[in-house]
Design goal:
The protein has 300 residues and is of the alpha/beta class. It has one domain: Rossmann fold. The protein contains eight helices and seven strands; from the N terminus they run E-H-E-H-E-H-E-E-H-E-H-H-H-E-H. Strands 3-2-4-6-7 form a five-stranded parallel β-sheet, sandwiched between helices. A two-stranded antiparallel sheet has the order 1-5. Helix 2 links the parallel strand 2 and strand 3. Helix 4 runs parallel beside helix 7.
């Protein structure tokens, strides 16, 4: 019997995957009004290297984040969700990347753009990129949180190639449209399934349980080892494609070691599908460390 390939962000029985994939988010929203539908530059692999440019030095004067609900603060609870997000939020309890930059470089004040949308896949994030290249001032640092809504399970070579092509189009648009920018891609940050299971009650696991490919909990809330193994393999394959594509662009960066989600239930929002305020704070710190480690901001 041939197993159907299911986008992970579209099946309620797979909501438990959100924990395994760093609470990446499975919600949806209307298209961003800033997004346009213009065509992008060619994504021929032979031209995927970014054009020669002079990116910022030190700390950027402007920034933007593209992605899905993991970057919007959705589900975080207290106060305005957007203010809680790890990238551009202004909640001091989160101490976002933006607030950390502001402390180092006052010129960034008011120049932090959040174009992320709940439920966004790479096609939608591409539209966000079209909007980003039109911003004034142009964002010098661009953070991208993607993957979740582009994963299918099981995934074959065609699925992975489609992901690679869409990511190449996105990065080509950003590097050609923002010649002085630096781009940082987050990868799927995940814990071990046994750790995820330990953070949830049996009732919660049963609530998230399902059947079929990548349903890591069954209807009784028990972990399904073979589906855990399948899901981890799929996520690894997409992560590998993401880093391989990023590496073909001079100004694209990633840090797989930065995002390893700890076993702290306080970081999980009540909906079991997003970050809490504490979770966004953890991710902001991890992102800041990654930006330092990749040389996109000073280490000091």
């Amino acid at each position: 019997m041939t197993l159907s390939r299911t986008p992970l962000g579209t099946r309620s029985a797979l909501v438990a995957i959100a924990l395994l994939t760093a609470l990446a988010g499975c919600s949806s929203s209307e298209p961003n009004p800033q997004a346009a539908t213009e065509s992008a530059p060619s994504t021929n692999a032979s031209t995927s290297k970014s054009p020669a440019g002079e990116p910022y030095q030190g700390y950027p004067d402007s920034m933007a984040v593209l992605g899905h609900s993991g970057a919007t603060g959705e589900g975080s609870g207290s106060g305005s969700p957007l203010q809680n997000n790890w990238a551009t939020g202004e909640n001091p309890d989160v101490n976002s990347v933006y607030l950390r930059l502001l402390e180092k470089n006052p010129a960034v004040e008011g120049h932090a753009y959040n174009l992320a949308q709940g439920g966004a896949d790479l096609s939608r994030i591409y539209e966000q990129a079209i909007a980003a290249v039109k911003l004034d001032p142009a964002p010098e640092l661009v953070l991208v949180q993607a993957i979740d809504h582009d994963l299918t399970c099981p995934a074959d070579d065609g699925d992975l190639q489609s992901f690679e092509d869409k990511l190449t189009r996105l990065l080509t648009t950003l590097t050609q449209g923002l010649p002085h920018s630096q781009i940082f891609l987050t990868v799927q940050d995940r814990t071990a399934p046994s750790t995820d299971a330990a953070m949830l009650t049996t009732t919660e696991r049963a609530q998230l349980g399902g059947t079929g490919p990548c349903a890591i909990f069954d209807a009784d809330g028990r972990v399904v080892p073979k589906e855990v193994e399948r899901l981890e393999g799929v996520i690894t394959s997409y992560d590998e494609r993401l880093t391989a594509v990023c590496d073909t662009f001079d100004r694209c960066h990633h840090d797989p070691a930065a995002f390893r989600y700890p076993d702290n239930r306080d970081f999980v929002a009540p909906d079991l599908n997003h970050y809490s305020v504490a979770g966004h704070a953890y991710r902001a710190k991890a992102a800041w460390t990654a930006l330092q480690r990749t040389g996109l901001i000073p280490a000091g």
